[in-house]
Each structure stands twice: as structure tokens, then as C-alpha cells.
Amino acid sequence: MDPIKAMSLLNRACPYLARTGMTALQGLADAGLSGGMRSLSTSAVEQARCGVCPGHTGQSALLAKASECPVVGPSIRANDAAAAAKAAKACSQHAPPATVCPYAKCVESAGNASPPGKTDVAPVSHESKEGVFDYEGQYQAKLAKKHGDKSYRYFNNINRLAGRYPQAHTANASNIVTVWCSNDYLGQSKNPVVVDAMKSALDTYGAGAGGTRNIAGNSALHLRLEEELATLHRKEAALVFSSCFVANDATISTLCSALPDCVIFSDKMNHASMIQGIRHSGAKKHVFNHNDLDHLEQLLAQYPRSTPKLVAFESVYSMSGTVGRIPEICALAKKYGAITFLDEVHAVGMYGPRGAGVAEHYDYEASLRAPAGQRIAGSVVDQVDIITGTLGKAFGIVGGYIAASSSLVDMIRSYAPGFIFTTSLPPPINA
Ligand code: PLP
Q: Which top EC class is given (predicted)?
């Protein structure tokens, strides 16, 4: 379009430029580095960004004036930003010295990132008759490896009968077996009190939670359950997860990535959920021999007291049945400035006068005497910083949790993806 005509159209459309006389606008346009109204075009804006590279001249006077306009100014600035990114790329094509071209620096500082939709991989011809990757073949090879080393898993078909604990029928309903390997240690999954609570919650609130905790899936039942778990472990707060695998993974990974330069000390026989959390945290880790206090101390002593450290261990080890040396490990942790993470999965509901686990069992009498929920200063429970447990074993249903200080629990609640981005436990489970 003829620049003068474009100018007059713009003049009428823009309440800001309308107040600028035609002669003044003409002057501004003429002063534009790429010439007249063309200096308003995107390419001119791109070129206007860089005063160093060949072809990248200075800022257009007309553009500078127009960007003061309250109406078109914001969109010019937004355009300008996009154009700057494009100009940066153009700069790199001119290959100016990085020290001279500011946009070449931008390209460098972006880690030479490929533009969206492009990769650094050399272009591939798709004309060849080359076959696609053999996905099924890969699955079968992995399975063959499992069969080869005899680690392939066959699942039993076990249908535990509500009225006949610990009996079940197999795939054949008339074949009754006794189940001695269940983690429903106390038969709570069939306890009429439990079943009735679930039925009543089902009738009142339905089967599903309806969302994640931070959207529609946070209910009074979740809060009551967490309050009850905090009371059970005499901690300030508790947080419920879909399972204790998730609780361990989410808590360790979130916590140890939040503590700067955190070092983790993990018992050699720790459960896979803790190992997963340690991996996901990206923190440095040391594995100490199972229940070996000397080895743990040797590893802890390498670090200054001020380095954040986490000692992760269990109370009842799932594979060996051995019991963790809780008071001794807590004492070592305190000596070297570490916090403790105790998995009481196989102990909650089983040990201690109130079923809080092995840590509570150490102070049996004191725990019996103290009011529910009240902190017992100096007790073993009091020395453990984070206790994790499951609702899926002695408590008979499903779910996992942590119990700790309010700020730790709130931090995990606020940062752990494994807590935030998943549907919360359904009402009957909480009940
Ligand atoms: N921690 C230990 C020691 C376990 O043995 C298990 C499960 O067997 C878990 C954590 C995971 O608990 P959940 O079944 O609630 O995921």
C-alpha cells in the first residue's frame, strides 16, 4: 500500500497517532531506517532489534513513537518480543562474533536450544524400505530374559472370603485354601465395624473421590483420617497418599530435592518404594549395611553437621522380618545433624499399645498413660522425624501416609507431584 495512504488510515484508526500531525508522522516515517511505512512491518522490526549484524540496523523512529500509543503499544511490544527471538536466530545465521552481537549471546545462553518443532538430529530420509522398530519383539525378549533367569512371576488366583478369614477359594470356587501370606494381618478387611463404615460412606458419599485433593477431591473424611493418623503417631500432622509406595517415593524425592545438597543414608534392605524415592530425588546417597550402626556412623561422619542428611530405614523389614535399631539410629542421626525417615508399614496396627508401631512399642507404658496425640518428650516416637505407614496391611484396606511436623507435611502437600496430581482416596476407604 502507498505509504502516505497507509499513514492516513493509521492516523484515523489510532486515537494516539490521530493527535500527531500528518507532517510530523511523515517525518517519523522518513526517518525510519528501512524507509517510510515499511519500518512498521515485522521484518523491519526484526532488523531494528540489532545494531551490530549486517542488515540489522537501528530502531525505527516511527515504531518508537507508535509503541508509546496506549492502544497499539502493548501489541507492538509483544510483536517486538517475538521479533527479537526471530532476530536472535537471524543473528546466528549471520554468524557474528558472540562478543559483538547481543542476540548471538541470547542464542548461546539458550543452550543452543533447537527452535520448537526442530531437533538437532540430522534429517532422515523416509524413502527407504527400512522396517519400523520391533516393539513386540522387544517385549518378548524382555519376558524371555525373565523366564531365563526364573524371575518371571505367576500370580495365584486368591479370593479371600469375607466370612471365613483366613480362607479363600482359588479360581475354582469349590477349592478352599488357607492364606498364610496375606498382609491383612488382623483380618480388618472383613471386620464388621470396618465394612459397615465403608457401606455407610458409600451410601452417603458414593464410590469415588471425584478429583485430586486440590480440586474436588478433598473431603472431611480425608481430614479426619489425617487427624487420626497424626494423633496415632503423636505428630503435629499427617498426609494421606494412594499407597505407602507413593508416600515413600513422593516424600523422599520431594524432601531431598528441596534440601540443598542433601545426602541420604539408606539401609541396605530398604523397600523398593524408598529406593525409588531416593533415585527420584537426585540426591547423593550412601547405602549402609543392614542395621549396621558402625557402618552408618562411618558414612555420616564424612559430612559436616550442617549438611542436610536423611537416614531412611524400616521398623519391621518386609523380607527378613528383622527389626530396625530405631533408638540407636535416631541417636546417631542426632549426633551428625540428620533427620530420620522410618517406614513402619509392617508394624502399624501390630505393635505398641495403640498400634502406632515398633517406635511406640519402646515406650509402651508411657504411651499407655499419655493422652492420645500428646507428644511424649524423649520417647522413641518423638525422636523419629518422619513416620510412614500403610492402610493396606494391618489396617486392612488401602492407602499410605506420612506423619511428621506441620511444616514438613505442609511442604510435601504443597510440592509433591505424587500427592498433588492424582485422584484422592475414595470416601469408603477414608471412612
Ligand atoms: N514399605 C514397605 C516396607 C513395604 O513392604 C511395602 C509394601 O509391601 C510398602 C512400603 C508399600 O506399601 P503399600 O502397599 O501401601 O504401597
A: transferase
Q: Does residue 314 have its Cβ closer than 6 Å to ligand 1?
A: yes
**Do the strands 284-288 and 167-169 form a parallel or antiparallel pair, or are they unpaired?**
unpaired
Q: Which of 273, 386, 388 to mutate to test the pocket of ligand 1 (most atoms within 8 A of CB)?
A: 273
- Alpha carbon 406 to its chain centroid, in Å, reads 19
Determine contact, residues 428/207, Cβ cutoff 8 Å.
yes
Q: Quick one: cell of 79?
A: 510483536
Grid cell, residue 353, equals 499399645
Q: pTM here?
A: 0.74
Distance 265 CA to ligand 1 centre (A): 19
For residues 18 and 9, what is the distance between their CA atoms, to the nearest angstrom?
Answer: 10
Catalytic residues: 393
Rounded Cα distance, 288 and 291, in Å: 8
For residue range 139-189, list pLDDT tens digits in order: 999 999 999 999 999 999 999 999 999 999 999 999 999 999 999 999 999
Closest Cα partner for 84 from 130, 47, 32, 109? 47
277 in Cβ contact with 252 (< 8 Å): yes
Q: Please list the residues that pair with 160 across neighbouring strands.
A: 168
pLDDT top residue among 277 and 41: 277
**425 contact partners, CB below 8 Å, separation of at least 6:** 209, 222, 225, 240, 242, 398, 399
